[in-house]
Amino acid sequence: MTLRMFNTMTREKEVFEPLESGKVKMYVCGPTVYNYIHIGNGRPAIFFDVVRRYLTYIGYEVNYVVNFTDVDDKMIRKAEETGETVQELADRFIAAYKEDMETLRIEPASINPRVTDNMEVIITFINSLVQQGFAYEKGGDVYFRTSRFKDYGKLSHQNLDELQYGIRIEVDERKENPQDFVLWKAAKPGEIFWSSTWGNGRPGWHIECSALVHKYLGATIDIHGGGVDLTFPHHECEIAQTEVLTGKPMAKYWLHNEFLNIDNEKMSKSLGNGVLIREVVKQVRPEALRFFMLSSHYRNPLNFSEDGLTQATNGLDRIQNSVTNLKHRLTIAQEDVLDDQVEKRVKDIEAQFIAKMDDDFNTPDAITAVFDLVSEANRVLQQDRVSAPTLRFLMGRFRAFDSVLGILAEEREELLDEEIDKLIGERNEARRAKDWTRADEIRDLLTEKGIYLEDTPQGIRWRRK
């Protein structure tokens, strides 16, 4: 079987052939950490987690990088509103982001580089562009000369003269060309800044990813991903500023997931219809939200609704119940031989699962294969005698599929409400005694058991994952 993926650059499904045998270098644009993430952010996070999981499943070693934009205009404005420093704001929301990712069973990236930890690398990258005539300074700002990159627009398939400017491209009379974009922004009075050849300032949005990709993964990577809204201008600008320096393709394959809509309306801050992930998982299990996101192909728009979540929950319950019944039956099953007919049917199902994932990560059809496994498991469970090896084989296939999709609830020994309250009380006593080590130990224990604590004006409130 051969993995094929839709390459935004060529607008075709292409056979995946990594740059280095057995290894994959993959970069996905991460969040600007000035707020909690919403379900629109959740779609690419879940999808590219599945891409990384599947590449691992079929035998690749994946170096997966997701950046944190921890300084930009929105960060500065939000910090002014909250009275925090930009770093304090970033620290707070990076911690929240990681908690939300863990809740959604998204495996940690190989590394999450922060922009502010890589300022020297970014400044050096910009300086190289200036020295070679690809960028110019005006009034402390530095701009990229799009006219020097003849292929500008090749990812979004737009003609340079007809480009529609993205949200972050601003009209500026200091630009030589309206399409030129900022690489370095001069600091305004009172703003956070770093020193550079061009004066105090901070990097523009696009340059950070080019510099970080180059530092952590090299001149050319296998896969660069993100939401479809990043195709232009962000990824287009990344390509331009990277490829003029290296003379090589920035990425071999470009993957973009489509938008998430809310009740058939595009999610946007202006409409006020953004829904936070941490609010959704108070209403439904995190695995149900994952299931919902994967029930539609990543290149199709997805409509978020209560009905959709209900259907996802019901579908997930069918799978979970089958697994639970297999575990229960195993406690009374006798050791015997593996049923070869069951083995054959299940291997056929597994082949279908792999074939669907190989076809541009077709998660909806892969989930259909999981339901075929449910049907086979339920058929086996109706028999009077089932061998333990047969049950273990079925359970193993559920675990294998779940290692890619991540939709089954993790097994854990649940705490009783009384035990939770007792531990919270003990933690409060430890905090009053300034025994921070013990307080952290208790919080970690509760988190491990799927219990999350929230500070409210009325005191500590807890909820189950």
Automatic annotation (TrEMBL):
Its cofactor is Zn(2+). Binds 1 zinc ion per subunit. It catalyses: tRNA(Cys) + L-cysteine + ATP = L-cysteinyl-tRNA(Cys) + AMP + diphosphate. It is an enzyme of class 6 (ligase). GO terms for biological process: cysteinyl-tRNA aminoacylation. Gene3D superfamilies: Cysteine-tRNA ligase, C-terminal anti-codon recognition domain (1.20.120.1910), HUPs (3.40.50.620). ATP binds at residue 269. Keywords: Aminoacyl-tRNA synthetase, ATP-binding, Cytoplasm, Ligase, Metal-binding, Nucleotide-binding, Protein biosynthesis, Zinc. The keyword Nucleotide-binding applies. CDD domains: CysRS_core. Residues 352-416 form the Cysteinyl-tRNA synthetase class Ia DALR domain. Its main location: cytoplasm. GO terms for molecular function: ATP binding; cysteine-tRNA ligase activity; zinc ion binding. It is found in: Cytoplasm. Pfam families: CysS_C, DALR_2, tRNA-synt_1e. One of its GO terms (cellular component) is cytosol. Transmembrane segments: none annotated. A motif ('HIGH' region) lies at residues 31-41. Its EC number is 6.1.1.16. Zn(2+) binds at residues 29, 209, 234, 238. SUPFAM superfamilies: Anticodon-binding domain of a subclass of class I aminoacyl-tRNA synthetases (SSF47323), Nucleotidylyl transferase (SSF52374). InterPro entries: Cys-tRNA-ligase, Cys-tRNA-synt_Ia_DALR, Cys-tRNA/MSH_ligase, CysS_C, Rossmann-like_a/b/a_fold, tRNA-synt_1_cat_dom, tRNAsynth_Ia_anticodon-bd. Monomer. Belongs to the class-I aminoacyl-tRNA synthetase family. This is Cysteine--tRNA ligase. It comes from Paenibacillus lutrae. The lineage of its organism: Bacteria, Bacillati, Bacillota, Bacilli, Bacillales. The gene is cysS.
